[in-house]
């Protein structure tokens, strides 16, 4: 069977002229079960897209003085310990990337736990896709949510939140639509990854008339990209919008969910909850998010 590149070449299109959807992927590893999940997902996607993979190897410094400018022995020791830990964690990851025949690197990231969102967000500015695990239980208040918020709001990154298990290709996608700029931004960024998508389910929860009209316009855009599109309006019930969207994914059999990251500010969003906070904890399929 000939490759897609060979078929294109037979039509007079050079293989090198056909761009891959993405060229770089970022995830992080800190030895936790969640980081094992996201490393596996990132490797799967890097192989699928023939992309370079960066793994930020995180080692935490617990001392308040450790990253300050005082420079005394008590301040330097925690940093050195964290640097050694990052080196220890990095070695098997480099071996794994080599075994998978992937182009990639490990990036030691020594930080205080409370600074993870900022430091990881800075790194997320320089990649095409950030891959993170689904937050589970109290993990929402630990590394996964901090890195998610940092990547979305500080790094302006495209983030794929992946539950455990294989990462399916997005043949059928659910778009959480409210007509807002973040929702539109998410769809536009997602189109790069949806070259094989056949069906888009545009789901609105209790929409206003102007939002419903914008969904029809969105469906036209998606048809230009080779997808069939169906618009669904769901009345708000007793559950949250995030739970309604998660149920809609189950009902439609969507492979991925596409959603904007909402809120007046990331701090207010975190305090008040909302779709941006809750949906990553509920999703059973990869969730693509953009602010």
Descriptive notes:
With 291 residues, this protein is α/β, with parallel strands linked by helices. The chain folds into two domains: 20-162, Rossmann fold (3-Layer(aba) Sandwich), CATH 3.40.50.620; 172-290, 3-Layer(aba) Sandwich (Rossmann fold), CATH 3.40.50.620. Helix content is 43%, strand content 21%. The chain has ten helices and ten strands. The chain has helices at 4-10, 33-49, 73-99, 116-124, 143-154, 181-190, 209-224, 241-252, 266-272, 275-282, and strands spanning 24-29, 52-60, 104-111, 129-133, 159-162, 172-176, 199-205, 228-234, 256-260, 287-290. Strands 3-2-1-4-5-10-9-6-7-8 form a ten-stranded mixed β-sheet, sandwiched between helices. Helix 3 (73-99) links the parallel strand 2 and strand 3. Helix 4 (116-124) crosses helix 5 (143-154) and helix 8 (241-252) runs parallel beside helix 10. The two termini are 41 Å apart. Residues 1-19, 69-75 and 268-272 have low confidence and may be disordered. This is Universal stress protein. Residues 171-291 form the UspA domain. Belongs to the universal stress protein A family.
Q: What's the CATH superfamily of the largest domain, by name?
A: HUPs
Elements, N to C (H/E)? HEHEHEHEHEEHEHEHEHHE
Radius of gyration: 20 Å
Give the helix/strand class. alpha/beta
Low-confidence stretches: 1-19, 69-75, 268-272
Shape: globular
Beta strands, count: 10
- Mean pLDDT, rounded to whole units? 85
CATH fold type of the largest domain: Rossmann fold
Number of folding domains? 2
What characterizes the major β-sheet?
A: 10 strands, mixed
User: At the first level of CATH, what is the class of the largest domain?
Assistant: Alpha Beta
Percent range of helical residues: 40-55%
Which architecture name of the largest domain does CATH use? 3-Layer(aba) Sandwich
Q: Give the DSSP E fraction (strand runs of 2 or more residues).
A: 15-25%
Helix count equals: 10
Strand order within the widest beta sheet: 3-2-1-4-5-10-9-6-7-8
Distance between the ends: 41 Å
Family: Belongs to the universal stress protein A family.
Domain UspA: 171-291
Pfam family, one: Usp
Protein name: Universal stress protein
């Amino acid at each position: 069977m000939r490759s897609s590149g060979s078929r294109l070449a037979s039509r007079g299109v050079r293989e090198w002229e056909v761009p891959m959807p993405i060229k770089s992927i970022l995830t992080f590893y800190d030895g936790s079960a969640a980081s094992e999940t996201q490393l596996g997902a990132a490797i799967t996607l890097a192989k699928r897209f023939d992309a370079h993979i960066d793994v930020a190897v995180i080692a935490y410094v617990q001392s308040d003085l450790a990253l300050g400018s005082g420079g005394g022995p008590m301040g330097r020791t925690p940093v050195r310990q964290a640097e050694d830990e990052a080196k220890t964690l990095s070695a098997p990851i480099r071996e794994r990337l080599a075994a998978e025949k992937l182009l990639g690197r490990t990036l030691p990231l020594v930080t205080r736990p409370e600074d993870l969102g900022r430091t990881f967000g800075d790194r997320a500015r320089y990649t095409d896709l950030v891959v993170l695990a689904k937050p589970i239980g109290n993990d929402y208040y630990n590394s996964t949510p901090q890195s998610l918020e940092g990547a979305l709001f500080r790094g302006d990154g495209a983030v794929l939140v992946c539950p455990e298990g294989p990462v399916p290709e997005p043949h059928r996608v659910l778009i959480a639509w409210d007509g807002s700029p973040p929702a539109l931004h998410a769809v536009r960024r997602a189109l790069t990854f949806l070259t094989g998508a056949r069906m888009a389910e545009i789901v609105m929860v209790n929409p206003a008339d102007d939002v419903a009209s914008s969904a029809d316009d969105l469906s036209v855009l998606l048809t230009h990209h080779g997808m069939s599109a169906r618009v669904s309006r769901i009345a708000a019930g007793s559950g949250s919008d995030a739970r309604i969207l998660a149920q809609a994914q189950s009902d439609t059999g969507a492979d991925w969910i596409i959603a904007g990251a909402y809120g007046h500010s990331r701090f207010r969003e975190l305090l008040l909850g909302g779709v941006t906070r809750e949906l990553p904890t509920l999703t059973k399929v990869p969730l693509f998010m953009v602010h």
